[in-house]
Amino acid sequence: MSVLVLKGSLTGKLVTYVAFTFGLAYLIDLIAYYIKFNVLLFQISASVRMYTPFAAVVIIALIHTSSVRDTLRAYGLRFRDLRVKHVITALLIPLGMYSLGVLYAASLGYIVVNPAIPLAISGALPTTLHPTILFIILILKSLLAGATINTVFAIGEEIGWRSFMQVELGKYLGTALTPLAVGIAWELWHAPLILLFGYNYPHHRNLNGVLTFVLLCTIWSYILYIIRYWCGSVIAASIAHGTINGLASVSALTVIVKDELLGMPIGFLSILASLTILAIMLTLHYKAYKSRVSIDEVLGGGDAEKRT
After folding, report:
1. Which of 29, 73, 127, 269 pairs as cysteine with 101 (C-beta 3.0–4.6 A)?
2. Which alpha helices (H) appear in 198-261, and where do they start and end?
3. Rg of the chain over CA atoms, in angstroms?
């Protein structure tokens, strides 16, 4: 069964998705805020929160079809479509963003350090190994976490943002506008975490933090949009999403800044690096396919429904 022919209007399905995704997530946030969860409980609630888009898609499936499993598979939750090259691509793109961010930081005069050194001093890494070896181990651990446990949680988000919303909105908004709309909605879903808890932006629990994350989410939305259609499976986008999260703490330890709006992984340097990666992806993809299909078809506008 294909989700693309589910009964019900686009408006009805989107209202259902938004109501449950945002409603459940915001409810979790309010409970955490008023009960004043400790760090552990907050981490647990944040992890549960990541599956509110998944829950919304399941609810939509229950309303519009008799098979939740077929609906999820039709939206791209299929391991059989995943190839080794997809996994490698999904890991290398976030790693490329991290590398470019560090390069830009060094070029602009930021303080750049080996992130393994403070971790070794704190006891999180062994002190008997050379700092370069420790750095390699740290990066590999981040990539491993990104491709495993982080991916498990990222699937909870990606089945909603890069599958349901991307497919359904793509029918009407097209290739250029769909990731923009999804990216804005994606950030608004995160917004209470910033405003109530200072999540990602402890010094900017205000509009500055929200707007900065809107920009980042929009850029990442385009990147994940392309990965989703390159690989034909939402799992690849989930691996990339999970790896971005896996490299977040490493990024923060690598570039030393007083204001998170300026650095990595959620500030100016990450925006610059992410834009560069997006430009490279679009350029390479266009050059590879311009002689055969239109750029709209390459990015999913033309044959996305066949592959979804």
Report:
1. 269
2. 207-231, 234-246, 248-254
3. 20
